[in-house]
């Protein structure tokens, strides 16, 4: 895990505050997540797209397996983006949006990258989001299961 400092602009004045440090998954951790999920997919003889994002939901690594749907590329990235931004699994967000009494239009979030299909999960360290995993290309339940397989690698 790497810590990234976010420094506010200081033009001609001394900084009085400490920098904000935010931990994030790094590339080697992203690769371990992808390898774990890919191995499980190979055992199942299936193909999918796997996206791993940083603490802000921005892409670190992506794998589109042979025969995985092209449309799953954007969906996997959006699942990872949504999970990191919201700090909760995309399935939960989708369930809340579809609730008969309290449901809402996902468009109200103001960004078309928000999705409510299962398969996006945040990665936490010390109760803070440090990254996320998005899997797309199979049915919703399998996407969720596979994303959790990737999480197991980090939580060991």
Written description of the protein model:
The chain is an alpha+beta fold. It has one domain (2-6, 20-154): Beta-Lactamase (2-Layer Sandwich), CATH 3.30.450.150. It has helices at 27-44, 71-86, 90-98, 140-154; strands at residues 2-6, 20-24, 49-53, 59-64, 120-125, 128-136. Strands 4-3-6-5 form a 4-stranded antiparallel β-sheet, sandwiched between helices. It has a two-stranded antiparallel sheet with strand order 1-2. A hairpin with a 5-residue loop joins strand 3 and strand 4. Helix 1 crosses helix 4. The longest helix is centred in the first third of the chain and has 18 residues, at 27-44.
Labels describing this entry:
single chain; 156 residues; alpha+beta; Beta-Lactamase; 4 helices; globular
Q: Structural class, from helix and strand content?
A: alpha+beta
Q: Any idea what the CATH superfamily is called? A: Haem-degrading domain
Terminal CA distance:
14 Å
Coarse shape? globular
Secondary-structure blueprint of this entry?
Layout lengths: L1 E5 L13 E5 L2 H18 L4 E5 L5 E6 L6 H16 L3 H9 L21 E6 L2 E9 L3 H15 L2
Antiparallel strand pairs: 1-2, 3-4, 3-6, 5-6
Quick structural gist:
The protein is an alpha+beta fold and 156 residues long. It has helices at 27-44, 71-86, 90-98, 140-154, and strands spanning 2-6, 20-24, 49-53, 59-64, 120-125, 128-136. It has a single domain (2-6, 20-154), classed as 2-Layer Sandwich (Beta-Lactamase).
